[in-house]
Predict the structure.
Amino acid sequence: MQRLWRAWLPAATLSLLAALPVQAQTLFAYDDFDSSINLVSRTITPDLSGNPLPGTFPGSRFDVFGIVDRNVNFDFADDSAGSFPPDQFGILKTRKTDRVFGVEDLLNPDNSSGIGSAIWVFDIRGYTNLLISIDFAAMGDFETANDSHRFTVSLDGGPEQDVFLSSVREDLDQTYTLESGTKVVLNDPMAINGILLDNNLKRISSQIQGAGSLLTLRFFSSTDGGSEVFLFDDIRLYGTQVVPEPGALAFLVGGGLTGLFVLARRRR
Ligand SMILES: [Ca+2]
Ligand SMILES: [Ca+2]
Ligand SMILES: [Ca+2]
Ligand SMILES: [Ca+2]
């Protein structure tokens, strides 16, 4: 009997898997700061959303942490093809008017810690084989010692896995091309997972191990200095839907498994 089960179980498992519909990884949750799907909560610390200029510290509009758009300040906005042709600094081009998550100079008189953090909780029930992507951009002359960003993910309160880690390439220069075509070279660019950033949003993705019901994304940020902008947009979660079609499930429960039991009894 034992040997029979040992021989049959792998085969039964295989046919069970084969009966499940194969589905591609699809986008099922996101937060682009203008709208969201399957976002349970979003908490930003410090929360500057109630300030006269939302997302900025009271002392200066060039000290930023939170949800902003290109009107927040001239370091975020690339106006070189618009209202200010001599512009030499900016990420958000004329037509990029929607909202993003921005960070600039966290070490300021209103925030002596120099750090900020944010937490997103997404509903991921029914999806496995998870992948997260975020669109990142940065412009500035950064420092390894003072400018760092880290994103972790945990499933249902489990251990945190790093998904995006920044580094500053103090051995490199980066060329930033403004919307007008003006090129600006700055020292020490920011990278995410080793991929160099510039003033164009770049989609970077990371696989997530495991599955669960709620996914918590945590962002830890530590920055100092003006004219150093880091921003991101379009947090996206992709996965494979795990719910089998009713027909496949009925076949398994009604036919496949019953047949296995009958066979097992006969062989006794
Ligand atoms: Ca500008
Ligand atoms: Ca957006
Ligand atoms: Ca530097
Ligand atoms: Ca800095």
Remarks:
- The pocket of calcium ion (ligand 1) is lined by residues 74, 77-79, 87, 89-90 (CB under 6 Å).
- The CA atoms of residues 127 and 241 lie 5 Å apart.
- The longest helix spans residues 246-267.
